[in-house]
Amino acid sequence: MRKLHRATSLLVAAAVSLTACAAGSGGDTTAGGPAAAPGADEAFTLTVWSNYSGRELAEVTKALESFKAKYPNAEIEHEGSQDDDKITAGIRGGNPPDVAMSWATDNIGQFCSSGTFQPLQPYVDRDRVDLGQIHDAVRSYTEYKGNRCAMPLLSDVYGLYYNEDMLAEAGLTGPPRTTAELLDHAKRTTKRAADGSIEVAGFLPTMPFYANNPQNWAPHFGAAWAGPDGKSSLATPEWAEMLRFQKELVDFYGYEDLERFRAGLGQQYSPDHAFHQRKIAMMIDGEYRTAFLDDQAPDLAYGTAPFPTSKPEMHGTGFTTGSIMGIPKGAKNPGAAWELIKHLSFNTDAIVDLANGIKNIPTTKAALDDPRLEVDEDFRTFVDLARSDKLRGNPVTPIGNAHIKAVGDFASSWQSGAVPDLLAGLAEVDRRIDEQIAKSGK
């Protein structure tokens, strides 16, 4: 998935509209229970909006076409380069799509709590769908407070990428397993020019930049977003340890030198990406990066591993997110919309084919174990993480990604030296997040 999350907010939307022959009535799930599925031989049109483009758009289109195996008279129209804002505008304007697939999970709490996405549990119960086929972390980021309003479409799992030649040149025999080792590896693989400017950064600590986002880093420090009472809990030793690790690296490079270096780096999803161009020795990123590297930097010698953790016993912890699919409020044909969602969520052949096409992680246990899944040594790191019980999903709140942005903004100020008291600053961010959630009424 490019990001796929790729950077952080990616999306797919699918709109379903029936022709005159189509079965099923429009409306919301809650109005009269789950809507009926179309008949196997009935003709209807599925209009799919997505934020995919290029190669990935073509692969998603293939996955949508596989829906015709069950509904041969379905017509599918796939439009790329759509986003969540357009879906929201469609709902407000009374012309929503029938299936919305969002590339990121940041807004799932808002979608579920506001009714933007309709409840899917009635369909799950009616069709006796076994949600146990989906790993726990993935299930957690497709619902909010017991309201399942979305299903997954593949996932992203994050780990460590490292340049094998750079580590070897620095006398390092393998990737770091702890954040203390990461700090040491970063310093030893950093290179400076004669004038002191950075030529190669062992590990770039700037946040937010590339996949350096608070939700991606937090699990490796055991940092939780909320306490037992449900309130924001950033003013904790774990969050403080994470940010102090970040600041120690920033201070090693020098903030101004680091900013000058970062300003000259390429875009996250372009061939000029800093890792592709051997400008950074290590980074955190998702499994999808393997496809970009194969395509854009085929001669680069690299390896993958679980991202280092603050405590050795936490090794193997990982962050996961992914694409989600829901039925928007006011969808004209929720019955057919659910059939499409169910197909893409649970049909093993469709899941494996799409995972192979865009190099994302399958979200069902059967697809993860399918022998047709293409798994090389570097991709296996992420498959193994996905099979573990140490994955942590995106924090879900009714305020969309506002809490994530708040922490990212704070980290930016902290790394620049503008925060005099770390814990007091985090406590203030807690207060503002709790206040915003309270104002949401959710």
UniProtKB/TrEMBL annotation:
Pfam families recorded: SBP_bac_8
Main location as per UniProt = other
Supply the Gene3D superfamilies for this chain: Periplasmic binding protein-like II (3.40.190.10)
Which sequence ranges form a coiled-coil region, renumbered to this chain? none
**Signal peptide as annotated in the record:** 1-22
Cite the entry's keywords alphabetically: Signal, Transport
Report the superkingdom from the record.
Answer: Bacteria
User: Which subcellular locations apply to this protein?
Assistant: Cell envelope
Q: Which family does it belong to?
A: Belongs to the bacterial solute-binding protein 1 family.
| Purpose | Part of a binding-protein-dependent transport system for a sugar.
UniProt-recorded name of the protein: Probable sugar-binding periplasmic protein
Species per Swiss-Prot/TrEMBL record: Saccharothrix xinjiangensis
